[in-house]
Amino acid sequence: MPKRNQNAIEEKANIIFKEHNHPFVSQWLSLFRKTKNPIYAWRTYQSARGFGLPVPDEILTYLDKAARDIVKIANDPPKANIRPLAIAKALGLGKSGPGADSIFNDYKDRINDKEIAIQAYEEIQQSGKEYISFEEVADKYKTSASTVRRIYNEHMKTWKEIAADFIKHKIIVFKKSGGAELAIPLPGNSLKLREYAAILEVAEKPKKNPT
């Protein structure tokens, strides 16, 4: 892509995302507010930076405190054998005793749920049969079909909301053929790209099946 066109796309992205609260950023911020889990603070920061958005004040407050605590450690380093835990605690990630793993387990569980939802969506698109798809995904992830259905329905609700928001702000646009496409490139790993694909297909469905 010519550099001039790429710059124009990036400029358009910055305008759109600075004028409108991006749902992928607000999702992580909402989880941080709800759980106080520092991992969600970092995901909020990562998403905001990736989309060229200002980092929310609540996240800056967390980072400011972490910076102060890290500097305290640097000024008076603890013994080497307890230094990693001290650093983890400065970041809000260090706990001992019951619940020590809950911060990471909560995050891991949510990512796993997203994988399940996307896998279920893709299976349904191929087979056209929800129940069979839920059973197959349940077998793969060692869970129940009812759990897969619940996770799928929760994510479908979110994807519909994101699709509507993207259409409203012209992040998703429709081609003359009727297909939906992203007006600007969005950052993300392979799981996030699969989620974008699902959101695009969700956006297309009302166009294909108008009421």
In a few lines, what is going on in this structure?
By secondary structure, the protein is mainly alpha-helical.
Explain what this protein looks like in three dimensions.
With 211 residues, the chain is mainly alpha-helical. The chain has 2 domains: 1-94, no CATH class; 101-211, no CATH class. It has 9 helices and 2 strands, in the order ααααααααββα. It has a two-stranded antiparallel sheet with strand order 1-2. The chain is flat and about 65 Å long. The two termini are 39 Å apart. The model has no long low-confidence stretch (mean pLDDT 86).
User: How many extended strands?
Assistant: 2
The ordered string of helix (H) and strand (E) elements is HHHHHHHHEEH
| Residue windows where pLDDT falls under 50 for at least 5 positions | none
Mean pLDDT over the full residue set: 86
Q: SS-based structural class? A: mainly alpha
Helix content: over 70%
CA(first)-CA(last) distance:
39 Å
Q: What does the overall shape look like?
A: flat
Keywords:
211 residues; two-stranded antiparallel sheet; 9 helices; flat
Q: Which helices and strands occur, and which strands form pairs?
A:
Elements: H1 3-19, H2 23-35, H3 38-50, H4 57-75, H5 83-90, H6 102-127, H7 130-141, H8 145-168, E1 172-174, E2 180-182, H9 190-208
Antiparallel strand pairs: 1-2
Helix pairs in contact: 2-3, 4-5, 6-7, 6-8, 6-9, 7-8, 8-9
